[in-house]
Amino acid sequence: MALAGFADTSSRKTSAPMRKSRVVILLLLPGIAYLGLFFLAPLVALLITSFEAPDPNSFDFGAYVYAFQWQNYVAGVAEYWPIFLRSFFFAIVATLAALLIGYPIAYFIGVYLRGRASLQAFTLILVVAPFFISFLLRTLAWKQILGDDSWLVTTLKSLSIMPADGHITGTAFSVIFGLTYNFIPFMVLPIYASLERLDLRYLEASSDLYSRPSTTFFRVTLPLSLPGVVSGTLLTFIPASGDYINASDDFLGGPSTQMVGNQIQSNFLKLLDYPMAAVLSVVLMGIIMAIVTFYVRRSGTEDLV
Amino acid sequence: MRFSLGKWLLPLYTMLALILLLIPIGYTFIFSFNDYFKTNIGWQGFTFRNWTNACDAQGLCSAFGNSLMIGVVSTVFATAMGTALALALARYKFRGRSIISLLIFIPMATPEVVLGAGLAAQFFTLNVEKGLVTVILAHTLFCLSFVVVTVKARVASLDPALEEAGRDLYAPPSQVFWRITFPLLIPGILSAALLSFALSFDDFIITYFNSGSVQTFPTFIYISASRGVPAEANVIASAVFILTLAVVVTSQLVSRARAKALKRSA
Lengths: 305, 266
Prior knowledge:
By secondary structure, chain A is mainly alpha-helical. Chain A is 67% helix and 2% strand. Chain A has helices spanning 21-50, 71-112, 117-128, 135-146, 151-158, 172-196, 200-208, 213-224, 226-242, 260-270, 274-300; strands spanning 52-54, 64-66. The longest helix of chain B has 35 residues, at 231-265.
């Protein structure tokens, strides 16, 4: 599974001899050139755009020139810091929720169903099945199921479980719910990949030494599955913090749930404020890179658990 | 002696979680049969009409066709370049290897909205008009890294003894590659291509930044979301779902039958 390879940074030594470097260059050149042209160059374009100022010689909407306008960053952070906070809050809560829901699923498939290959395959297919249907349609389905006129909400209201003027959609809850839902498979797959390789004799040894099941879990199982947990949380956290589908008005969000992604999109595509969209992108990318680096370093040490 | 969380608690919990995962799929499927008028919200009666006339919703089928085309073309490019990169990384030692690995990894760790805005900023600066070509260029980019990771895992799991045997029998390097290595890699390359197609087909964020007036299946849904998605879109999504499920189940069955046959002959 490709997602499992996310955590795999060690490369096994192969016995193949070193051959002509010309072959290597031929193999590398197209892909590296492509990444340079369409990944690195756009990042540079974004960085340059973030320092642009409105073109003084043009009355066109959306015309900008490079001006080393570093104040763009000050303005961007001053205006949007609450939205950054909200985005990362949503993303962190959704990641934790996905971990709480996803870990038991992965454990069930990888440990509980060990030895029953067809059941394992069947359950795994159910876990990835949401990927086979459009991301937008599945989010819209939740919007309709949780919407104000839906059977669920009217029932909850008639039972007075929910206040008569209450909503589910358009709230922080529904956005976090949507983010959690959409990224659970990303959490399950890498954790499953770790647990599937877990040697069950360690668990036996632990219980033979009279440790309680919870102790076995926290001292043996969880540490051994940590690589999967790390890549699963990253695979959930990164797309969740940049997502803007769940939070957008037409889906599960409302005006009070806007995330950074929504602001980047509206600045870029609606307001044509390219410098501001670029500032927000650069800051978002910077924060994510910082969090990811810190997180990977921390979890690389054994004292995390 | 159970080290699991109770005998029935875990299966029950998993079952509930799986039901939660599958609810929107069921919803989408059921509402593809809704005899809707204007908006496909609320059940209005059963009909096959949406399935028999799926292209009646204006713009839907051309958007779907665009998605298929974009998926195939970007998958071909991404798979070709990605396989080459994976081979180089898994089989050769060279200077700058770790930097190249990092360069391949970072696009996967970049939020889509940043990738999309970056590409759009670059196309804007270079005065490239947005359309099919820019979407294909963008999709090829984000599929590339996933192809490399998938194929690299496959190369690493190959038994080096097979290639050694080829060399011991005096096969020239090119023959070893095309007669031994490449055939063994085909399953990995195929699954990378499938993954790449699936990623491209369902991508919305990067596409929306770079598509201009061209519509794909996801952008069609996004744009119609504000006034109500036609049930015909549910039909297309359900059909794609069933087809994908069939492909995945078949490939699982085939590979397991193969593994069994290998075991028996060994």
